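HOLO CASE FILE
Compound: copper (II) ion
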Amino acid sequence: MMKSIRLVPVLVVVLMVLAAVPAFSQSNVVDLTGESGVKEVEVRSRGLAFEVSEIRVNRGDTVRVTYVNGGGRHDWVIDEFEGARTAMISAGQSETVEFVADRAGTFEFYCSVPGHRSAGMYGSFVVVD
Ligand SMILES: [Cu+2]
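Model generated. C-alpha cells follow.
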C-alpha cells in the first residue's frame, strides 16, 4: 500500500516528460530569413524523424544543408529544387548539399526510403517571397 502511494508522483512526472518530448521536437523551426549570405542549416535524424521540423529562407537564397544521419539508412530530399538531394547514407555519416531556393512557397523535405516519409520522416521548407 505504501509503495503504490509513493509511486503516483513518480508516474505523474514520467507522463509529463513523455508528453513534453514530442511537443518540443515538432516545433523545431530554423528561421534563416533574417540572416545574410549563404543560409546554412544542419539537419539531424533520429530514428524515423528529422530533428528539424521547419526551415525558413528567402526566395533567391543559396541554401547549404548538412544532413547528419543519427541511425539507419536515409537521405534528405526536396523534389522542387535542383540539387536538394543527398546520397543515401548510413548511420553516423553526413552529407552537405547546396541549392538555390528560386521559388517561393511551402515545400516538403523528406527521406525517400520507401515508407519513411509516411512514418513521419519529413518537414517543411518554407521560401518567403
Ligand atoms: Cu529514412
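CASE NOTES: The longest strand covers residues 62-69. The mean pLDDT is 89.
CLOSED: yes
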